[in-house]
Amino acid sequence: MQNKIGREIPESVLALGFEPYQGEGAKDGVEYRKQGPRVRACEKPFESKVQSSLREAIVKCGLTDGMTISFHHHFRDGDYIVNMVMTEIAALGIKDITIAASSLGTAHDPVAEMIEQGIVTGIQTSGIRGKIGDVISHGKLKTPAILRSHGGRVRAIESGEVHIDVAFIGAPTSDCYGNARGKGGKSDCGVLSYAMVDAKYADKVVVITDTLVDFPNFPPSIEAIDVDYVVVVDEIGNPNKIASQAARMTQDPRDLMMAEMCAKVIAATEYFRDGFSFQTGAGGPSLAANRFLEPMLVKNGYKISWIIGGITQPAVELLNKGLVGTIVDAQDFDVPSLKSVHEHPRHFEISTSQYCNPANKGAFVNKLDFVILAALEIDTDFNVNVITGSDGVLRGAPGGHPDAAAGAKCTLIVAPLLRGRMPTVCERVVTVTTPGECIDVLVTDYGVAVNPRRQDLVEQLTRAGIPLCTIESLKQKAYEIAGAPDPLPFDDRVVAIMEARDGTVLDVVREIKPIA
Amino acid sequence: MQNKIGREIPESVLALGFEPYQGEGAKDGVEYRKQGPRVRACEKPFESKVQSSLREAIVKCGLTDGMTISFHHHFRDGDYIVNMVMTEIAALGIKDITIAASSLGTAHDPVAEMIEQGIVTGIQTSGIRGKIGDVISHGKLKTPAILRSHGGRVRAIESGEVHIDVAFIGAPTSDCYGNARGKGGKSDCGVLSYAMVDAKYADKVVVITDTLVDFPNFPPSIEAIDVDYVVVVDEIGNPNKIASQAARMTQDPRDLMMAEMCAKVIAATEYFRDGFSFQTGAGGPSLAANRFLEPMLVKNGYKISWIIGGITQPAVELLNKGLVGTIVDAQDFDVPSLKSVHEHPRHFEISTSQYCNPANKGAFVNKLDFVILAALEIDTDFNVNVITGSDGVLRGAPGGHPDAAAGAKCTLIVAPLLRGRMPTVCERVVTVTTPGECIDVLVTDYGVAVNPRRQDLVEQLTRAGIPLCTIESLKQKAYEIAGAPDPLPFDDRVVAIMEARDGTVLDVVREIKPIA
């Protein structure tokens, strides 16, 4: 059947118990009971949870065939944890494992082979890149991968849709009881926001660190009361790949032009007032928008109330200049950000539930004024794709994109009209990761289009003298330059299910045929 | 039947589903599934949770006859919240309410009348004083009150034994979304540790504040993601009764002598070494022990690793002098303590689960070296009573007493042999709140007795030249001076059930006969 946004959801997927997407906010107000983990009471005193080896911890957790394990991705491309744990699991002869990660990338290429071997038979993630995406797109994973936004992942765990048997949490520092922090140590990643829900809802929790510190390691991101075992290893990550030294500010004139237009669009709306809230992605033009916003703030005597999201240097600079009141931080992309969090008195770590869970009693994104996001593709219904590449292969991350887009009063997508010879603006995106009803404004290098649902913004931008065009005309222009893209050679088989924030099915990803 | 410590548990209590106490640590390692609250997904953006009145919030919560509501006691004798909420509930004609509070005191005397009227038919608490204790002891509450330690309360809530329908959380500051803090405002109480479990496990959560602050109110003790409604009132408490200006250090020579002996006992044990951990109650001699410990620390070049518990000025002073590494704080008894928490970089707020829940994966008390506690009575089996007065009426608080006693490697009770004409050391305490197997040393003004279970401590104290006597000889001395106490005129009816930390029944409290 077709879901609310006209995507065909096969019966085979509905038969798994999934509902089709029914529109933005369709599950607002739904009541449910949160699930709890199965835990062992530690009533008697004992001194330490440190185990002699990772293998010992895995064995003590009772990890067996068919279980679900989880990981966070705060170490990004520098992560050693996933491979370290999976190597032990494989060596123990355990198979049929589902990995429920907050994101998976090229650092985890060795897992691709374990998928082919049946050691890993399920993947649930908010991002997927490298060889894992490749083998899944080519039909090697036994079950369809389940793709969720960051907020959707928390919702799924808290509601019990995903039950984590064992969470493996890499931590830059931990004490012998498992009080763990994102700060400090050899592999500083600033915060452990993604892992917080895992610690609270997994039956067993293993903290893996390369820097054991004195008890109590406070304030903890992961609380000892939720941790079963602590494992100390030589290295949990490669610091050079965890965080870049500093955000590279784009010098590309096209990016700068789009960034300036984003700032102009923001300033033209009713939401641009003293105390607005703001989020940007870490992409070039999104980041550069900060540069153009700053003089507008100064000129108007405005201050940003709070900045949220994955944090980068420009946000930290605005905080240090007193142009932002508070940063609430769910991920650090660069060294200035991870140095600032917990150090600057108004730069705080938050959980991903606080950030963007659509099923709690009100996440930060619900009060967000502006977000600037990127897109691999955007279609004439304003649907955005950030998961499948132009070849139809999984190589992206919904991450917090659908969450921030749904929450923000004004959601901007910034993207060049073309990437190489591929139109970004198109008739129909390969995969919908963020529904068009959540997108308000598209800024491209060939013009600005406002979603027709937002006639209020059309008026406000027009009043401010910003020239607007239709998204159809942008698509037209793209196709004129590059030609209409050829349809991708998909097979019928569903290899991945793209969940909406609320757990319904937004779209499916099908197997891509091998090149003949 | 008799439980492990020889207390008669009536069949009527066992018939309610309770198990008799089976000894310290009997439930260690027991597996259970944590319960979750029933919540309403807030997927759609909205700006504020502030309601026009407390009544509106109560009505929106759907509060009806027979429900369980909860409160915290961080405002102590200055609390206005319980009476404010109960007055509205009574005015709405709602009845048969169970109050599950972290403690109840004289500030809540008006509730006594509601018990007689059947508006309140259940009480679950970790402390009970004033008229509420009186009417319960005289058989006016419809169901037996359930008394738990602070850790036992968290355990009961997390395991689902107590299900809170609506938590009412008084907060010194809150923003419009319910991010609430113990710090700041007109009724500063420092921390909101007791309320944290309520916020996470109650179906509905109402934050009541007299100081609404800008969003986001960070770092929050209570997270907005768990809060349904915010109510702003004129005053939530009386600051003069919330915290004393400064801890009154006793000048009583008897108290000082006992305090000095406590410090000597500590210094004589193997646990007195660099980096030990420490807790004291807020009573006179317990507090004064800090004064005598300090020179011993300096002399040995030792530093206390961490201090935990209800915090008072002496702990803050040791922190400021660099003689303590970290304070982890679950309650503030005086102004210096509540000023220090969140301000001194090593003075942290913790949840009551982190402090002392016996059913999580390892609370702080599990790693505690020393605790000095008080007692209303202690018997020759070292069982302690801190709940019933010498007249058999409920007027005390187990609080964290049983938790710290069970966790600490060395648990000291400090108490005068007699209070007026009443022996403190006796043959059999009226009510057991902390089992004798958790008590190691009794320090009185007439001598020091070590629990015979701890021959290691007998040796260490003897080696240090501390004169020891038996607890029987102390009882003998007390009875010689004051005479053996007359048995109290109890009826058969059980008016309160004293749970052990693990939820089994340690003892029961019976109705006291009216004076003829």
Question: What is this structure's SSE topology?
Answer:
The structure is a homodimer of 516-residue chains.
Chain A: H1 11-14, E1 31-33, E2 38-40, E3 50-51, H2 54-60, E4 68-71, H3 81-91, E5 97-101, H4 110-117, E6 120-125, H5 130-137, E7 145-147, H6 150-159, E8 166-171, E9 173-174, E10 180-181, H7 195-201, E11 204-209, E12 229-232, H8 239-242, H9 253-268, E13 277-280, H10 284-300, E14 304-311, H11 313-320, E15 324-332, H12 335-340, E16 347-349, H13 352-356, E17 370-373, E18 377-379, E19 384-385, H14 401-407, E20 410-414, E21 418-419, E22 422-423, E23 425-426, E24 441-444, E25 447-450, H15 455-463, E26 468-469, H16 471-482, E27 490-499, E28 505-512
Parallel strand pairs in A: 3-12, 4-5, 4-8, 5-6, 6-7, 7-27, 8-11, 11-12, 13-14, 13-17, 14-15, 15-16, 17-20, 18-23, 20-24, 25-26
Antiparallel strand pairs in A: 9-10, 18-19, 21-22, 24-25, 27-28
What are the defining features of this structure?
ten-stranded mixed sheet, homodimer, 28 strands, 516 residues, alpha/beta
The helix/strand class of chain A is alpha/beta
In total, the number of strands of chain A is 28
What oligomeric state best describes the polypeptide chains here?
A: homodimer
pLDDT < 50 stretches of chain A: none
Strand order of the largest sheet of chain A: 3-12-11-8-4-5-6-7-27-28
Q: Approximately how much beta-strand content do the residues of chain A carry?
A: 15-25%
Q: Quick check: average pLDDT of chain A? A: 96
